[in-house]
Specification:
Blueprint: H1 3-26, H2 37-59, H3 65-73, H4 82-103, H5 105-109, H6 114-121, H7 130-151, H8 163-183, H9 193-205, H10 221-240
Helix pairs in contact: 1-2, 1-4, 1-6, 2-8, 3-4, 3-10, 4-9, 7-8, 7-10, 9-10
């Protein structure tokens, strides 16, 4: 599998399972309706874990433009590969959202809440305050990138144990779970531009009954915030570890 295809497939898996758990909790007449934030954060953590296991050996499983750009800024990834990774992540995120739409097809018309339908695809603030929302996304993504780089250092691995291949993807999922539980409340923790923008575009284009607008006025925050946070987290690692 090429790195481009791996990033596309991995991101599609991430969004299928991540947006899928939101759909299960938010949409009406599902088996998981109203099961709550713990289910959503756990589902997203497991989505990341499964996706990273699936494609890590092919592309490094960035699955996130903030990770790709952050690594490139500190010399841990080639800038020449950044455009293809970002393109693959965006396409994969869009396709994953389409899969969720298909999986929950009867439930869109059964759900009157336009905001709930949008929440399946992308994030939104609990309290709309652009600067505060941007700061939240910067903090969350900085923790993500710093956590991935710091926790998965060779110094934390047992030599010849196979730890990195066997457990590293699960630890990435734990980091995402922790961010969701601790920092996800204000904005829904996009911490990934592709995760938000690709599905938001799918929401805008797909024929969803009574869906309302796609809130493009907010869309820049879960794109710019994670990119800034990813660069900050990467430089914090470079400077301090």
């Amino acid at each position: 599998m090429s790195p481009f295809l791996a990033e596309l497939v991995g991101t599609a898996i991430l969004i299928t399972l991540g947006d899928g758990v939101v759909a299960n909790v938010v949409l009406q007449k599902t088996k998981g309706n109203n099961s709550g934030w713990i289910v959503i954060t756990t589902g997203w953590a497991l989505a990341v874990t499964v996706a990273v296991y699936a494609v890590n050996s092919f592309s490094g499983a960035h699955l996130n433009p903030a990770v790709t750009i952050g690594l490139a800024t500190i010399g841990k990834f080639s800038w020449a590969l950044v455009p293809s990774y970002l393109a693959a992540q965006m396409i994969g995120a869009f396709l994953g959202a389409v899969v969720v739409w298909l999986a929950y097809l009867p439930h869109w018309s059964a759900t009157p809440d336009q905001g709930g339908k949008l929440a399946v695809f992308c994030t939104g603030p609990a309290i709309r305050s652009p600067l505060a929302n941007l700061i939240t996304e910067i903090i969350g993504t900085a923790v993500l990138v710093l956590g991935v780089l710091a926790i998965l250092r060779p110094e934390n691995l047992v030599p010849n144990s196979g730890f990195e291949k066997g457990f590293a993807p699960a630890l990435v999922g734990v980091i995402v779970w922790s961010i969701g539980l601790s920092l996800g409340g204000p904005t829904g923790y996009a911490i990934n531009p592709a995760r938000d923008l690709g599905p938001r575009l799918a929401h805008a284009l797909l024929p969803i009954a009574g869906k309302g607008g796609s809130d493009w006025g907010y869309a820049w925050i879960p794109v710019l915030g994670p990119i800034i946070g990813g660069v900050i987290g990467a430089f914090m690692f470079k400077c301090c570890w």
